Amino acid sequence: MSPAPETDISFFVLPKDRWPKEHKSVQYRDHSWSLVYNKHKTFICEFPEGLAEGSLGLCKELLEREQLPPRVSLFDDEVIHDTSIRVQRRNETMIFRDITPLIAPSAELMALRGDEQLDILCESTNEIWTYSQQLLQYQPQPSYSVGFKALAFTELQFTKVTEFFEDRCTSETSPIMGTSHMFFPCFSCEIGCFEVTRRQNVHNMTIGMRAVVDLFRGVKREAEVHRQILAFSISHDHRQAEIVAHYPVILGETTEYYQQLIASFIFTDSRYDKWTAYRFTKNMYEVWMPAQFQWICSAINQLPEGWSCGKDIGQREFV
Is 58 a domain residue? Predict the structure, then answer.
């Protein structure tokens, strides 16, 4: 509805303090972020020795295991190019609506449709990780992310793991949380310029990995996480996508974090398999995440029911 001609148009203008804040990706456009990450032992590159052999095999399985694509979608041959062109100059929300579900389908919707093993998963869309302990000065806000529900853990497991991290928690944040409902986040999807989305995903997934590494250090099993995949991420725009694996490297008392490109492809180009990311993501939910959850729980189960507080992870003692 338009204002009446005689109406003062300034009446309809929002005051500056109510203008939308700058886009969440703005802070990641600065090239110096790579140096900041390095100071935190996080690197946007591969470790020279790469992933462990078992993790490489996992990536191959997730890429190749068959999944049925949607019967009808905007990736159909007759509309995929028009879809890409239509959203090319639109905002991120439009790309998220039309493209992202065909790159990274919803874990919770898959669970609602009968995939009961995915009931342990919790997702968020464009939600600020207000409960996270961010690596940098900004809290992450992934376009889409997945972790585990609090209710996926038994009451005893939840008590043990929260007590273990108690001295690192504040009244509002926890090392194991992203949002108020998501624990141990392990998948992140970002939309936009790849140089920027890579930085966003590294930030997101380093937060998720740190909690797992600290947990396994606490039960003297840190060797198990060395060069093993602890998280995945996807970056995409209106025509291209890339899949990345994130992993820690244990160097004595120091932990460094690296990433490895698993696949990069143009889904609008018929020379590539446009369903690569869709298939990978569904396999990640069904194959890797349930196993990852059980692995995390196995470490939690080794925790005693009480820890002394006020000590570093490596110095905790039974009480």
Answer: yes
